[in-house]
Amino acid sequence: MLPRPKKRLGQHFLTDRHYLARIVAEIAPRAGEAMLEIGPGPGALTEALCGIVQPLHAVEVDPELAEALRGRFPPSALVVHEGDVLQFDLGALPAPLRVVGNLPYNVSTPILFHVASHVARLSDCVFMLQREVVERMVAEPDTPAYGRLSVMLQEQFEMSLAFRVPPGAFTPPPKVESAIVRMRPRATNAPRARDERTFASVVAAAFFQRRKTLRNALRTLAGEAAFRAASIDPSRRGETLSVAEFRRLADAVACLPGAALTERAG
Ligand code: SAM
Questions:
Q1: What radius of gyration do the chain's Cα atoms show?
Q2: Would the CB of 33 count as within 6 Å of ligand 1?
Q3: I need a labelling partner for 226 at 20 to 30 A (CA). Which of 79, 141, 168, 256 fits?
Q4: In this structure, which residue's CA is closest to atom 22 in ligand 1?
């Protein structure tokens, strides 16, 4: 029998066997892999995975569900880490690590950024999320869904929407459609922003007020010299820049410290 779902923990349990089988097929677990499941809940996906990957690691914040999982699977099959995944050190697990899960939708974006902060140790991720969030993750420039989440994650991962999952596949059904996203770290020799923090600041500022021109949105970060160095027209809006263009602009900002201030003062 399913435990009573706790809304504040985003608990919508996958109960449709057809979609469960499709998700397992998408993950395609293999013996010997290092794998972490986020939010195993009552363990529908967990059971399928830990029959193959042993031990499967799982991090679950709900003590009742964590306890039930410990009672159901021996530690040789499943290692349950009880606690908030946002406080969990993925660096403590073996690499290359696969991370999977039907994520709690109320904290899905912080979880994505937390997992992404360990990108160098990841082999891939397969997550179920709100469809609208997956569409933002994979969005192309100059589309309504393209924003900070798209650029920050596309800088680190190749991502694709695998398939959609209707609300009826869950108990209780969520109000929104869901989708499966696959994330693979970009090749280690792929171009990267020189300085991650500058890249993050430029992207955040560009989308903070997305209708503003880059000249206005980045007023305190980038002067005309940075735009010139990056060959980017400052009258464009952030939402029109590709990830590569954001990288170029952030690199120019990182190379020209103080350029914005100097020009404004002059
Ligand atoms: N995997 C199960 C399934 O598909 O039926 C449950 C999915 S449910 C959408 C999300 C799960 O994540 C719940 O079990 C919930 O308790 C757990 N959870 C919520 N917030 C969490 C957090 N911050 N850290 C770890 N687990 C969390």
A1: 21
A2: no
A3: 141
A4: 84
CATH number of the structural domain spanning residue 27: 3.40.50.150
CATH code where residue 231 lies: 1.10.8.100
10 in contact with ligand 1, CB cutoff 6 A: yes
**258 pLDDT higher than 60:** no
Length of the chain: 266
b/e map 191-224, b = 16+ CB within 10 Å:
eebeeeebbbbbbebbbeeeebebeebbeebbbe
Range of the domain at 102: 7-185
Which is more confidently placed, 262 or 189? 189
Rounded to the nearest 5°, which phi and psi values hold at 235? Answer: -85, 0
Instruction: Note whether 127 and 80 are same-domain residues.
Output: yes
Query: Relative to the CA of 105, which ligand 1 atom is closest?
Result: 9
Q: Is 65 in the pocket of ligand 1 (CB under 6 A)?
A: yes
Please report whether residue 1 resides in a domain: no
Q: Count of domains in the chain?
A: 2
State whether 49 and 71 are in the same domain: yes
Q: How far is the CA of 11 from the centre of ligand 1 (A)?
A: 6
Report the atom number in ligand 1 closest to the C-alpha of 15.
Answer: 5
Give residue-wise pLDDT tens across range 171-187.
999 999 999 999 999 99
